[in-house]
Amino acid sequence: MSSEMPFIQVRQLTKTYRVGDVDVHALRGMDLDVAKGEFIAVVGSSGSGKSTLFNILGGLTPPSTGSIHIGGKDLSHMTNAERTNMRKNTVGFVFQKYNLLPTLSAEDNIKIVKYIGGNGTDLDSPFQDVLHLLGIAERLKHKPRALSGGQQQRVAIARAIVNRPAILLADEPTGNLDSQNSTAVLKLLKDLNERLGQTILMITHDEEAASYAHRRVHMKDGKLVQTA
Amino acid sequence: MGVFRDENAAARSARDTQQQEKYSRISILLTKLTFANLAHRPVRTLLSILAIAVEVTMILTLVGVSNGTLHESARRARGSGADILVRAPGASSALTLSSSPMSDKFVNVLRQEPHITLATGTMVQPLELFDTITGIDLDQFTRMSGGFRFTQGGPPVNDMDMIVDEPYAREKHLKVGSTVTLLTQKWTISGIYEPGKLARICVKLPVLQRVTGNPGRLSQVYLKVDDSGKAQSIVDALRKIYPEYPIYTMEYYTSLLQVSSVGLLRNFTYVVIGVAMIVGFIVVFMAMYTAVLERTREIGILKAVGSSSGMILSMLLRETLLLAVIGTIVGILLTYVTQWLIVHFAPGGMTQETVYAWWPITGAIAIVGSLAGAIVPGLKAVRQDATEALSYE
Fold first, then answer.
1. Strands A215-220 and B179-182
2. Phi-psi label, residue A114: left if phi above 0, alpha if psi -120 to 50, beta otherwise
3. Which residues from chain A sit within 8 angstroms of residue B3, using beta carbons?
4. Do residues A26 and A15 lie in contact, with contact meaning Cβ atoms separated by under 8 Å?
5. Cβ neighbours of residue B361 under 8 Å, at least 6 residues apart?
6. CB contact under 8 A, B29 and A121
7. CA angle at residue A180 from A183 to A171, to 5 degrees?
8. Residues linked to residue B120 through DSSP beta bridges, in sequence order
């Protein structure tokens, strides 16, 4: 390990939660280093702890033990409120099911996240370029239900990066898309990574999707098994 | 892009303050979201508004009818032309008129007192709700009040003749010559007079005394004095002589005909307010609870992007507030409907006033009840785990 801390550093991370009367050990001493500007695919079977890792990296849930640093900031000792605050500007989420607010237009879905991040509601011109890059600039006035799955996912990507987060976490972003839309979304993620230097962690089952990343990380039984 | 902001605690707290200032300003976006959420479930929204509206109408109609009916009584009492009212001993409440405990000989006694120019006794027999039937000495009463102004027919001639005021006649579809059965007797309408004169239904005093089994008894005595400006000092003098009798100037008596002076009505109003508030509370509770359940995922999204608990709570409270405000407005409009219904269909001399002073009070009641109803659903939303909420189907 170099003297300088990597952009994301995960050490001996464990997470145990209770389902009914049973303790589930979702993470069992996970280590991971990610450099700034990297695009990483996290692969593994279901139940391997991928989603738990993402929830912890995204500050949605605290780890049980171990340490986790993003940009030098220690997430493992944050209070609930501190994690809430961190989510505003440090992470952006892209979900398998898009998760747009159904009652707001695409544009307002993006704006409300910018507003919650404390960055006002104006979409500045560099961001307008991003919207063009994503190919949704013309569809912004529509409600999610009027958009195709691929379009919704691109709106979700725009929403995820509107506050210029340190990392973009994508959980099966192509899981609900056909192959054409999947390819489009994956290319966009790669584009964002290359053009904007956006650090991306993507969960996927799909080997082809994983091939867009710089490297892939395999998880099994709550641990890293190999790095390719 | 993608530059991580290394911030120390001071900078973070400064940004928090800045953000709180932003939240405290009314955000167009959040307002938009509030409207969009309400419009998303139109039936639930309409039902909630309607329930709050009914709550508001319930209170305003009760207050309006109480005030209207009492003020109408006061107006009629003033229309008697009397300066002083002498009531039976023990009749403490303004509305207690059910007994006829005074002897009619007392009228002559009072008539002998200084400054008294006229004295006439009446007997009041309660009917349904606010209605009463009044027995009067027509000659004396005419001298005191200037007499009834008949629009149809004239004063009672036969024993079973009855005169009624115009609103009562309209309500009961009565004409001169119509017969009415009241107090198990059949009465014939001999005349219909302009309202505002003592009572709505009048018959000859001795007849009423006889049919109710109270011969020679009176409910109250009206006095006219030579100088109405001195009515109070005359009342003071009379009270010394007849300490057991409640004696008031007409001015004071009519001022007693207010909801706040009638304990029973006041308490009844509180009960209705309580019931209305509970109804509003339950409806909003249910509406917001289902809204929170239904939006579990959306709440999860908002949490994932960094919404604080306060913000999520405030969004639900905004929706509730909007429901309550619209409900209050609809409720106020509905009171004009109830007013119309009361004028056209209600029994028993009910009059509904529009009591503007109660608009803000009722609005506040509706808002408080609704916000209370939103608290538990709001806390449920706040406590939801974001990771579970996001995977909620």
1. unpaired
2. alpha
3. 164, 166
4. yes
5. none
6. yes
7. 50
8. B222
Give the span between the Cα atoms of B256 and B246, in whole angstroms. Answer: 13
Indicate the burial class of A97 (C-beta count within 10 angstroms; 0-12, 13-18, 19 or more).
Answer: middle
Cβ neighbours of residue A168 closer than 8 Å, sequence gap 6 or more = A91, A92, A94, A157, A160, A161, A189, A192, A198, A199, A200, A201
CA separation (Å) from B80 to B142, B224, B256, B329? 9, 10, 16, 39
Q: Which of A69-83, B95-109, B281-295 has the lowest mean pLDDT?
A: B95-109
List chain B residues with CB under 8 Å of A164: 1-3
β-bridge partners, A93:
A169
Output the DSSP codes for B235-258. Answer: HHHHHHH-TTS-EEEHHHHHHH-S
Beta-carbon neighbour count of residue B32 at 10 Å? Answer: 16
- The answer to whether the CB atoms of A88 and B306 lie below 8 A apart is yes
Element (H, E) at B373: helix B358-383
Which residues, other chains included, contact B332 with Cβ-Cβ below 8 Å and sequence gap of 6+?
B56, B57, B60, B359, B362
The answer to whether the CB of A198 falls within 8 A of the CB of B2 is yes
φ and ψ of A115, to 5 deg? -65, -45
User: Nearest residue on chain A to B298, judged by CA atoms?
Assistant: A101
CA A148, CA B344: separation in Å to the nearest integer? 58
Q: Which of B100, B132, B126 is nearest to B209 (CA)?
A: B100
pLDDT at B94 over 70: no
ipTM of the complex: 0.90
Instruction: For strands B247-249 and B132-136, give the pairing.
Output: unpaired
Token output for A227: 């790095």
CA distance B335 to B60: 7
Q: Which two tokens mark A25?
A: 């050990």
Query: Cβ contact (<8 Å) for B2 and A108?
Result: no
Residue of A118, A167, A199 lying closest to B22 (CB–CB): A118
Cβ pair A30, A13 in contact under 8 A:
yes
- CA B240 – CA A151 distance, rounded (Å): 92
Inter-axis angle of helices A149-161 and A125-134, to 10 degrees?
150
The number of C-beta contacts closer than 8 angstroms across A and B is 107
Give tens-digit pLDDT for B59-86: 999 889 888 888 888 888 888 888 999 9
Average pLDDT score, chain B: 85
Contacts of B306 in chain A (CB under 8 A): 84-89, 116-117
Longest dimension (CA), chain A: 53
Residue A5: DSSP 8-state: P
Nearest CA in chain A to B17: A118
Whether this model's pTM surpasses 0.90: no
User: A165 to chain B nearest CA, in Å?
Assistant: 5
In terms of Cα–Cα distance, which of B133, B132, B68 is closest to B95? B132
Structure confidence by residue, pLDDT tens digits, B133-153: 999 998 888 888 888 899 999
d(CA A77, nearest CA chain B) in Å: 14
Alpha carbon of A206: minimum distance to chain B alpha carbons (Å): 20
For residue B4, what pLDDT is reported? 40
Spatial separation of the C-alpha atoms in residues B301 and B290, rounded to whole Å? 18
β partners of residue A199: A167
Contacts with B10 (C-beta within 8 Å, 6 or more apart), sequence order:
none
